[in-house]
Amino acid sequence: MVILITGASHTGKTLLAQRMLERYGYPYLSMDHLKMGLIRSGQTRLTPEDDEALTAYLWPIVREMVKTAIENRQNLIVEGCYVPYDWRQDFPDDYLAHIRFRCLAMTDAFIDGHFDEIRAHGSDIESRLDDSFCTAVHLKAENRKYAEGFRAAGEEIAWIEGDYLKTIETLLN
Prior knowledge:
The chain is an alpha/beta fold. The protein contains seven helices and five strands; from the N terminus they run E-H-E-H-H-E-H-E-H-H-E-H. A five-stranded parallel sheet has the order 2-3-1-4-5, with helices on both faces. Helix 5 (108-120) packs across helix 6 (136-152).
C-alpha cells in the first residue's frame, strides 16, 4: 500500500506521515527532503521558492518510486506539497488500487481561530529555517488553492475545521 499525503504548508502532512509510520511501521518519503537533497547537491538550479517548477521536476521521480514500491508489494508513505492535481492519470487502475490519497486543507475559519497555534507547531516534526512567509492571508490562499485544485480533479479533501488532532486521528485509519 502506498499512502500519498499532500496539502498546503502547515496543514500537518509531515505529522500525519510520522503518525502513520509509528502506527503501521511504513517508511515515509518526504518530498521536501528529496527537494533539498537535489538542490543542495547541485542536481538542479531550482530553489525552494520554485513551487510549480519543483512539482514538474520532483513528481516524475516520486511517481516512479511509487510504481516501484507497488510492483515490489512494499508499503510506503509519500508526503509533500509537490503532487500534481491530475496525479491519477500517471497510474493504471491496477496501480491506483494500491494507493490511498489524502489532501489536507484548513478552512479560513480554522486559520482565523488558530493562527498562533498553527505557527507555533510549524516546526514540531521538521525545523523550519524561515517561516516568515507564514501569514494568515498566505495560509488561506494556499489552502484554497490546494482544495480547489484537487476538488476539481475529483479528489476528496480532508478539511481541518474543528479539532485538529481528531481530524488527523481519523485519517490514520
